[in-house]
Structure formats: structure tokens, C-alpha cells
# Entry
Amino acid sequence: MNNEPETLSKRWLMVSGLIDDDSAVLLPTISVPGPRSALSGIGPYELFVEDATGHVLARAAVGGGFSGDQLQPFAVTVPVIGEPARVVLGLGNETLAESRSDSALAAPKVSSHKPGSIFRAGDTLAWGTAHDEGITYTVNFTANGQDWRKLAVLLSQPSFKPDPQVLMPGPGAAFEIIAHDGLTERATRLPVEIDAPLMPLVPWPGDGEGASLDFNVAIDADTLGAASLLADGVPVNAVVKLSSAGRVLTIAPRSPDATASYTAVVDTTLQAEDGRSLESPVTIDFQADLLEPQDHARSWDPATQAALAARAPADDPNEAKAPPIDEKAQPPALFGEGQIKLEVGGGQMAPARILLCEQSNDGELLGLEMDFETTPGDWVKIAMAQSEDGQILATAELGNRAALKSEGQEGDDWQLYISKGIVTARGQINVVGQTANFALTGRCPV
# Structure
């Protein structure tokens, strides 16, 4: 019999907040895959992470280099072995801020569906009653039991209605619901059988290869006869093809006419490789004067994406202090998490990364950059800027397509606002023949 105690695994916590000379505010901690570059450097303030008995699990020096009267942000990543119960930020013998875990936090208990039951398009996941203020939830999904995708973050209520367009049937389909109290988390996994119609994630009018429909599953190439093209209402010859992964369907005129108004049509005989048929016909209007060849390199520096990617930590289970960070090897920037709703030729709800928040001296949000995936590896980036008179400009970079710009006055359809680190943004992207409305909520990077 093996009587050796069970070895606890190490995980990494990013602790962040706002700090002044003699006051501070701690923000909810975030679990990260590995060490990140510290924000604010090493200073006179000391951060402690303790377990329920008061044993120090990790510590780090933070702060320094501040100027002005406003609270300044800090962030540091520390390795933790054990269950954190308290985070303390102090200066000498004085405690400036602390946060404690919720001892009553439990893994969510799903009340809407039983394990192994059928989850139909339009169903709502529900898991018990609402918790106290400060508890948030994350919902993840997998089709194969291995590759997980975030469906929602920062949920304040114990329920969520997934967008049917992002659900894929599969042998290992399951939801994961994670409850966070700002320091610890508890998770529940619910295996299900997905019953969802085949619909495009997003139809995009016009790029160098014509109109396109992005799906979250591979399309059966033998059913491409479902696609056709009209020019001013008259059928014309079209080039119809699939991407190498089979998930992006493009339709373009074989002989483009700059004076024609094109309509791409896909009927319900289109099928996925899993046998499902398109739920309803799809039409996309576009014009040939937008079909100019584009540079198929990504529209933002791949090094930026690599910097934002998670990095695995070194295997050192005895480490109790934050190690020195190699600035050349670590991500130079952090990003915040959010949720975006995008409506273009349908609708899509997806997690978003908030890359940048630019604020004025009085805290007003002047600029914002975000990105999100429509299909795995296919990123959309949106940048917003607000002028003093309330005019808001939005620029969207849709993968290898031409950048789209729109602007509007702050009001019902346009907004750029921040309060206590939470961003609310709304705007529109004007595409030929239709308008894509989007709405974002989330946290700024720290």
C-alpha cells in the first residue's frame, strides 16, 4: 500500500488591482496557464496568498513608480500549491486591501438537464439559485470531450441560453459550468447529446473570393450544388468552393461585373458531413466592386497573437514565490475577457478578448480594441475610438477581408463606456446590403 501523501499540483494565479500610496482595491483573481509579465514592477507593497489556516502559499512584491493622484493598476502572477482562501496587499505592517474566498462556494448543480440527456437548440442551461453578489460563472462546451470552447464569461445569473450556431454534435459533447468567487472556483461537467440544426455562424458579403458562409462543422462537398448566384435577379455562372478544412463556403461570380448586384443563394439541400441539412435557405447580397484581391496575410502581426497565447509553466512543484520573468520570453501584454453579440445575416454570441482600453485622465473611455473567433482560428478584430463630441468610429478587420469602417453618434446604437473596470460597447459595421450590430461587455486588461 502506498502511504505517501497525495502531491498537490501547482497552478498560477494572476492577482491584480488598483493601488495608491496608502489605499488599494483588489480585483478578482484569474487562473492562467503560466507566468505573465508583471505590470507595475517591484515596489514597496507586498502581496500574500494564504490558505484557510493562514499558511502563506505565495508572495510577491508589487508597486512602485506611481505618480499623480489617481489609483494605478498592478498585476502579478504567482504559483500556488494548495487552496487559496485569502489575498492580502500590505505596506509594511498595514493591510491596504484583502479578499477572501466564499467558504460556501460549491460546484454548480444543473437543474435543467440530466447527464446524458438531449440538449436541443434553444434550450436554457440552469444551475440552481442565484448566489451572493460577486459570484460569476463561465460556461464552456466541447463536442469531442477534449477541445473546449468558452461560450460565456462573467455571467451573474445561474442560467445561460447557448447560441445554437456554436453547438456541434459529437461523441463527447458536454458543457462545463464554473463558479468563481474572485479567488477560487468550482466546476461541474454535464455530458449531453446535442440536437442542433445546421446554420452558418456568420455570412460575410464580399471579399477577394466572393461571399462566404462560415460553419462550425465541415460541409459535405457533394452537396455544393445547393449554392447558386444571381446577378440583378438572373442566374449566372458561379465559382463555389470550400476551404481546406471544409468549414468556409465561398460563392463568387465566374465573370465579375462591377455594375451588377449579386445575390448568393444556398438552399436546404446543403449538408454537413455529419448528415444534417441546412435548416433554412440563406441569401447574401454583395457587389463586384468590392471583390478586389486582398493580401491574405493576417491583418494584424502574428507576433501579437503569439504574445497573447497562453504559455505552459515550468514544472517546479516546490516553487512558492513568483520567479523572475524573462521579458523576451513572456507575453508583453494581458487581455481582458468579455462577451460579444454580433448580428449579421443572423446572430452570434461569442467570448471576446479585450486587447486595449484607452482612458482619459478623468477615466472616460476613449478607445477600445477587441477580437473574437467566428470559427476556430478565424479572428475578427474591432477597434473603436470616441471623440470629444461623442462621435464613435468602429473599424473591423475580418480576417483576410478588407477593413470596414463605420461611425455614429453616442446613443442607442453606439456606446463606449467604462465603470469600475467593466466595459460596455455598442456599434455597427456597415456591410453592403446589411448592417451588423454588435454589443460587448467585459473587463479591460490589467
Observations:
- The longest strand covers residues 348-359.
- The chain is about 0% helix and 45% strand.
- The first helix runs from residue 302 to 308.
- Helices lie at 302-308.
